[in-house]
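Box 3.1 — From sequence to structure: PIN domain-containing protein
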Amino acid sequence: MTVSGKGGIRRKNQEHYKSLKSLDALHIACAEGGNADIFLSTDDKLINASKRNKRFLKIEAENPLIWLQKEI
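Predicted structure (token representation):
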């Protein structure tokens, strides 16, 4: 799934989204489409799936507590 420039969402058959649940893929696609620097989540399964596919994603997913510890 990706976010189009007009705010619409369209599905793409991209390998890197297949290991993510539908709503997780949607959230990642929205963050990518919004040019976010980081995607923060407490969902360990989502974080692990995104790390396994990080070479395909435009955004890094991280636990907010771990991310904050790195930033301070």
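Summary of the box: DSSP finds four helices and four strands in the chain.
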